[in-house]
Design goal:
The protein is of the alpha/beta class and 315 residues long. Helix 6 links the parallel strand 7 and strand 8.
Length: 315
């Protein structure tokens, strides 16, 4: 099976010129997917003390700078933007990119940044309700000439999004690993589902849960693309691999244990094996999560060694 190999960039601690050079390099190298995240502060949280760029504006530059890779955001928190505004932004990015944009939606988790910037941050159950209302509303805005909706959280009145998506259909992704709500929303409404920082066995199990929800929702499971984001700590030799693991623990602190199961650690040969474990577990796409400072030697090893090896093994 053909596997999408991409990158998910955290747009922080790098000047914009460096970010633009990075995604141009990735696009030229043949990556299939490039995304950014939707945060107002840095991640891991540090109280808004680190340089960081907003998602929609960043995506405008990404859309204009690249030519081949599909692009997106994994994922937009639906509490930051009215769904009609987000639909309009998505179509604008789609046209800038020549039809390569795909829209990711999620329920959010970064309470500190939301409250600091003046946004309400309700409990998870309410945020999930918001996601469940926003997703079909955005789909309607992208596919119908006019949409009217008066819901619990969002309202539009005879709203239009003109022009529409370049290719007629703009894929919508749902991100997250919540089994009771997130995966059901993905099964009901999404073209794709993305999980972050989970081990291969857990990814396989979550795919099975998604399949079960598809059966309940009368959806063909094969209609939903499945991808995973993985921490990038590739190294060119064993010593560098040990240092990369120590850096991960230092960067993420108390959260390190959670993300290490979903990290690419080690030399290119080991990383190739690990990526193929995710493919065997049901991943149709694997995205490396890149954070500054970028180890360009390790990234070169991934692009020139791991990518062709995985593609050859899955051709």
């Amino acid at each position: 099976m053909t596997v999408s190999l991409g990158a998910h960039i955290g747009q922080q601690n790098m000047p914009m010129d460096e970010l633009r050079a990075l995604w141009r390099r990735l696009d030229d190298a043949g990556l299939d997917w490039i995304s950014v995240w939707d945060h107002l502060y840095e991640v891991p949280p540090a109280g808004g003390t680190q340089p960081h760029f907003e998602a929609v504006a960043t995506l405008g530059a990404l859309a204009a700078d690249t030519r081949n890779a599909r692009i997106g955001c994994l994922v937009f928190y639906v509490g930051y933007r009215n769904p009609a505004l987000l639909a309009k932004a998505a179509v604008t990015l789609d046209h800038i990119s020549g039809g390569r944009f795909e829209l990711g939606l999620g329920s959010g988790w970064a309470e500190l940044e939301a409250l600091a910037c003046g946004y309400d941050f309700p409990p998870l159950r309410e945020r999930m309700d918001m996601l469940e209302e926003a997703t079909p509303l955005i789909r309607s805005l992208l596919t119908h000439e006019r949409t009217t909706h008066d819901g619990d959280f969002f309202r539009v009145s005879d709203a239009s999004v003109v022009p529409g998506p370049m290719r007629g259909h703009l894929p919508i992704w749902v991100g997250g690993i919540g089994e009771k709500r997130t995966l059901r929303i993905a099964a009901r409404y999404a073209d794709g589902w993305n999980a972050a920082y989970v081990a291969p066995a857990e990814f396989r199990r979550l795919c099975s849960v998604l399949d079960d929800w598809c059966e309940i929702e009368d959806r063909d499971p094969s209609a939903i693309e499945r991808t995973v984001n993985l921490m990038f700590h590739v190294a060119t030799d064993a010593g560098a691999a040990a240092r990369a693991e120590a850096a991960l623990i230092d960067q993420w602190g108390e959260m390190a244990e959670r993300v290490m199961g979903g990290a690419l650690l080690g030399t290119p040969d080991r990383v190739t094996e690990r990526v193929l474990e995710y493919v065997a577990a049901g991943a149709q796409g694997v995205n490396i999560a890149l954070r500054a400072p970028i180890d360009h030697e390790a990234l070169d090893a991934y692009v020139t060694g791991v990518l062709p090896a995985v593609r050859a093994a899955t051709a």
